[in-house]
Amino acid sequence: MPIREDVLVVGGGLAAATAALAARETGKSVRLVAHKKSTLRQASGLIDVLGYVDGDGPRANPYGAVADLPEDHPYGLVGEAGIREGLRIFDDAVGDAYAGGHTDANALVPTYGGTVKPTARYPESVAPGLASIDEDTLFVGFEGTTDFSAPVVAEHVVAAGVPFAARGVTVPFPKTFRDDARATRFAKALDEDEAADDGGGVRRALADAVAEHLTDEERVGFPAMLGDDRDAEVREELADRLGVSVFEVPTGPPSLLGLKLEDRLFAALDEAGVRLSTGNPAVGYEADGDRIEAVYVDRKGKNVPYHAEQFVLATGGLVGKGIGSDRERVTEPVFDCHVPHSEDRYEWSESEAFGGHAFARFGVVPDEELRPTAASGEPEFSNLRAAGGVVGGADVAREKSASGVSLATGAVAGGRAGEEA
User: Fold this and answer.
1) Residue 24 pLDDT greater than 70, yes or no
2) Are 208 and 200 a contacting pair, CB within 8 Å?
3) Model confidence pLDDT, tens digit, residues 328-371
4) How many domains does the chain have?
5) Residue 116 domain-assigned (yes or no)
6) Domain containing 292 — which CATH number?
C-alpha cells in the first residue's frame, strides 16, 4: 500500500513540528519526515521572537519592532497574528515547562557567555535568573568543564548594566567523571542522587560545596545540567539546602535545554496523532505539472514515495542543510526551489565579522501563501509551502528571531496546508 497523508511536512526542527501541529489542528492526517536530529539540541532552548533590528536593541517589545524590519522579512508575510499563533501552538505543546506567556515584553536572560539575551519564552528553570530581577547573584561553574566559566559570566553580566551585583566561582563537581563527560552525565548523577566521591549523595555534596562560597547573594545560577527527568526536584532540593533560589543558565552545544525541548515537541506531535518517519532523508519528488504528487525518501538505498495533497518544506537554513551552497551557487536540495543570490560569491559576505552578510538571508522567496516562488515570481508548486530557516529574508542570528520565524511561518504554512488538503 502506498504511504499517503493529507499533509506531509519535510523537516525535523521547530518549524517542522509547528507546521505539523498546525496542520493536525485542522483535522487532517499529517506525517512528518525528518532525516537528521534537529538543530534544537545545539540551541539554547530559548525562544526568541525579535530582539534587535539592524543591530539596534535589545528591543523591549518584539511586536512593536516588527514594523522596523525590511519589507521582505518573513514577519511581513505572516504579520503579528502569525507570530502570536506560532507562540500559541508552542505554549500548548510545552505546557508549564516554559514561562513568558504572561507578557508581550521580551525577558532578559543571562547566557553561558555572559550576554543578556532578549527572549520571549524561556524554561521555568531559567526564570529565577532573569536579569530584570534585582537580586544579587552567585554564578557557579564546575572544574573540568570548559564551556562555562562562572567568573567570566558574572563579569560580563555586570558589564551589561544589570541592576544587581554578581560574582562567579568554580567548584569541583562532587563526583569524578571522565574529562569528556557530557552535560547529560552530570544531569543523570543529580537525577539519581548518585554517590559522591565522599560517599554521600551528590545533591547534598554540591550544596555543601556552594554554601562555602555564599555570602549575601539571594540566588545561585548553575550551567543548565541540574537534572533531566527530575530537574525540578533537583533544583528544589538545592534551593532548600542553600536557602536561596536556584536557576539554570542556558549553555552552548550540546544543550540539555535544547534536548528537553526537542523531546517535548516530539511528545506533543505523538499526542496529536502526527505520524513520524525519522532517520531517512528526502531526496527528490514527483510532480504533475505545478502539483507535487509525492516526496521520495531514501530508505536503505531505495527511494520510497510518500504521497500527500499538501506539502510543507521546513528543512532549515544553511546551518540545518536545508539550503546548500558550493563555490558557485546556492541551492534548495529537495525541490530545487529558486534561491536568489549574487553570481559573485564574494558578495555573499562582508569583511566585518558581525556585519549584515547576504548569506544570512539566503533562502526561498515565499509569496503571500508562503509558497516558494521561481525567479519569475510565480509559485514553484501550487501545493508546496515553506517554513523556518529555509525561508529567506531574515538575518535571524543578528536579529535574535530564529525561533519566532520558525514558529510563525510554521503555524501559517501548516495551517494553510491543512485547510487546503
Assistant:
1) yes
2) no
3) 788 899 999 998 865 766 555 655 655 566 556 778 999 999 99
4) 2
5) no
6) 3.50.50.60
Distance CA 380, CA 383 (A): 9
Q: Which of 216, 249, 282 is the last residue of a domain?
A: 249
Q: Write out the three cell numbers for 10.
A: 519535510
- Alpha-carbon distance of 59 to 105, in angstroms, equals 9
d(Cα 338, Cα 113) in Å, to the nearest integer?
37
Sequence-distant (6+) residues with CB within 8 A of 314 are: 9, 10, 11, 13, 15, 16, 19, 322, 386, 387, 388, 390, 406, 410, 413
Residues 138 and 86 in one domain: no
Distance, in Å, from the CA atom of 390 to the CA atom of 380, rounded to the nearest integer, reads: 15
Per-residue pLDDT tens over the stretch 188-211:
999 999 999 988 899 999 999 999
Domain with 243, as residue range(s), is 127-249
First-to-last CA distance in the chain? Answer: 20
Give the list of residues 6+ apart from residue 137 with CB closer than 8 angstroms, or none. 129, 154, 157, 164, 165, 166, 167, 217, 218, 219, 220, 221
Contact partners, residue 353, CB within 8 Å, separation at least 6:
none
Q: In this structure, is the dihedral angle defined by the CA atoms of residues 19, 22, 26 and 29, taken in order, positive or negative? A: positive
**How much of the chain is in helix, strand and coil states, percent to nearest 5?**
35, 25, 45
- What pLDDT was estimated at residue 342? 58
Between the alpha carbon of residue 181 and those of residues 145, 192, 225, 334, the distances in Å are 9, 17, 12, 37
> Same domain, yes or no, for 173 and 277?
no
> Which residue matches cell numbers 507562540?
87
153/296 same-domain check: no
305 CB contacts (<8 Å, ≥6 apart)?
Answer: 2, 3, 286, 293, 294, 295, 296, 297
Examine the domain organization and report whether 216 and 267 are in the same domain: no
**pTM check: above 0.90:** yes
